[in-house]
Amino acid sequence: MAETKTVIEQAYSAFNRRDIGDALALMAEDVSWPRASEGGKVIGKEEIRAYWTRQWSEFDPHVEPLAITEADGGRFHVRVHQVVKSLAGELLADGEVLHIFTLHGGLIAAMDLGEEADASAGPSAAFAHRS
C-alpha cells in the first residue's frame, strides 16, 4: 500500500504542476482515464496528454488527495479536495470528490470518478461552467 500511495500522490503532484511527462510516467501505456471536463473516457497516454492540454486551456483545476484507502479488487479510493477555477480566476467548483484508481505492475492502469457511475456521462458538475 505504501508504494501505491506514493505513486498516486506523485501523479496528483505532477498534475497540479502541469507536468504531463511526470504524470504519464506513472501510468500504463493503455491507461483508461475519465474526461471529467468533457464526459466519456480516453485510453492511452497520448489521449490523456491531448485531453489535459485541452482542459488546461479552458480551466484551472487543482486536486489534492485527502485520504487513500484500499478497496476490493485491488482498487484504491482517493478522497480528493478539488478546486476548479476559470482561467480568469473565477471559482467554479470547490469540494470533495472520489477518484478510484486501479494499478497493475506499480503503474496506474485506470482512474474512474466515484460519483459518476456512467462513463459515457457528460462533464462532471465541476466543469459545467465553460470559461
From TrEMBL:
SnoaL-like domain: residues covered: 8-110
Pfam family, one: SnoaL_2
Domain of life (superkingdom): Bacteria
Name of the protein: SnoaL-like domain-containing protein
Organism: Granulicella rosea
